[in-house]
Amino acid sequence: MTVEFPISTGEADYVARRKQLRKQRRLRIFQGIWQLTFITGLTGAMLWVAMLPEWQLRSANQIEIEGNNLLSKETIKKSLAIQYPQSIFQIQPQLIATQLEANAPVSKVLVSRTIFPSKLTIQVQERLPIAKSTRKGQQGFLDAEGIWVSAKAYPSNINKPNLVVLEPSNRAISQWSTLYRQVSQSQVKISQVDARDESNLILNTELGLVYFGTYKPSLFTTQLETLDRLRTLPERLKSKSFNYIDISQPNNPILEMNVSPKDKSSETKS
To answer: Which of 126, 155, 188 is the last residue of a domain?
Structure first.
């Protein structure tokens, strides 16, 4: 004898929902496995492609250097921290630019990659030496921004600047970029800038030694104009000479005369 128990509508719905949930769970598991398999395969394929010779930097011959004038391409390439062979996809342009700016006399570096054929293009902006300067007994150069670079960083056959700068040992030269621009535009030829004393900027000029006092850009312009008007001063003095010109007050320049022993003797007798 078979006894049948009737199933209510609510129980039937519950059973149907359970089956649907199990089906959805199996589907999610299948999708997860498929996605993992796809990603793993794709990653493996990308690694395989990346290791192919066509996608690698095998030597420095695949690096192009642009914008260099003072530095040779070989010198710049030797400053690059790149190991060969290396996948072009592993190259980090910004890291290479930062390392090159630290290792070579360049102020700006732009690195770009070419996937096929694999190569690097490096554009550099060199630090141009505009003045000679010695630090801790080592000869070097200053650029227009006041950055000091050892002379060893440049080829020995470069055209060396004529301007000499004596720097303070414990600080940077105040407003160097502005000072250099004014010096380079001066009508009076300037061969040396002595900035060791912050209270007295001293320039060695074609007129002789000139004291300017504390450097102030606006005042310095007026001082240079006054100095230009004194260009005929040595001719007027003729045989007489002076130690220096004090132009700290451009409206009242002072000449420190070099008195000879004979003149001193005459002054004593009088």
So the answer is: 126
CA angle 64, 65, 68 (to 5 degrees): 165
Position 160 in a domain: yes
Which of 77, 56, 62, 180 is CA-nearest to residue 124? 77
CB count in 10 Å sphere of residue 207? 21
Q: Are residues 264 and 210 in the same domain?
A: yes
User: How many independent structural domains does the chain possess?
Assistant: 3
Q: Domain check: are 216 and 260 in the same one? A: yes
Pairing of strands 63-66, 119-126: parallel
In angstroms, the Cα distances linking 191 to 6, 121, 158, 163, 254 are 113, 39, 19, 5, 21
Per DSSP bridges, beta strands 164-166 and 148-150 are unpaired
Please tell me the pTM assigned to this model.
0.69
Per-residue pLDDT reduced to its tens digit, 173-224 = 889 999 999 999 999 999 999 999 999 999 999 988 999 999 999 999 999 9
